Amino acid sequence: KGLIHCGEEMGSMYGMPCHGKRYYRCYYKSKLNTPTPCKSGIIKADTVEHIVWESVSQFLSDPTLIKKQFGKWVVKKQKESLTLNTSDFQAKNIEQRLLSLKTEENNLLKGFRSEAISLDQLKEQNAEILKERKELEGTQLKVHNAQTQAVISIPKSIDFEKYAEEYRALLNDIDPIRQQIVLRKAKLIVTVLDRKVNIKGVVPESSLGCIESTTSVYYEIPRRQFRAPV
């Protein structure tokens, strides 16, 4: 819904039944929506939906594209790694501060044993130390994760081909509802003009955060699957 547009008027095409079959028809074909109805024909829903899904699934499982996307992701990560020197400095500061907190705890305990501070003072200051330690340990974990993610292992070409095969099999096996999710993430613009279908969109970002790439594909629909203006 909302993915397919008419090449004549660029209006959305909506589903309609015709002799027991599903078709797509331009919104502006009805006189209720415009004083000058669109002259475009109607197209079998099964035909255009199959063309769109096959095009997108082939594009998403193209090993050359996957390798290109991975390369873009590597460049992106390398730029982010320029801040690692700052992360190293931050990590050392955190370690030093944690050691200082340990020393403060020991000094407080000595002060309590020598009766220089009361039990309430010991508890209060230990609670502040505990709070700061938890915050520092949380930041320390984030810095460690950032440093770990900066280490990138570059796959071989055959690995991209194997991944493409597995991903293609996965795409072939998903249900129509999940197909719609994939298509919407690809930000498709499907335009139908006469018997030609233009499919344009972007590769959705994966869990790797790959940068989007644009594709444009043209198909010509057989005449028997495309009805003349009615």
Describe the structure.
With about 230 residues, the chain is of the alpha+beta class. The protein has six helices and eight strands; from the N terminus they run ββββααααααββββ. The strands form two sheets. It has a four-stranded mixed beta sheet with strand order 1-5-6-7, covered by helices on one side. Helix 3 runs antiparallel to helix 4. The longest helix has about 30 residues. The chain is elongated, with a radius of gyration of 30 Å. The two termini are about 20 Å apart. The C terminus is likely disordered.
Cα distance spanning the termini = 22 Å
The 3D shape can be described as elongated
Q: Cα-atom Rg, whole angstroms?
A: 30 Å
Low-confidence stretches: 205-219, 224-230
H and E string: EEEEHHHHHHEEEE
In terms of structural class, how would the helical and strand content be classed?
A: alpha+beta
Mean pLDDT equals: 77
Q: Main sheet, how many strands, which sense, barrel?
A: 4 strands, mixed
Strand proportion, as a percent range, falls in: 15-25%
Q: Count all strands and give the number.
A: 8
Spatial strand sequence of the major β-sheet: 1-5-6-7
Please estimate the helix content. Answer: 40-55%
Structure annotation, total helices: 6
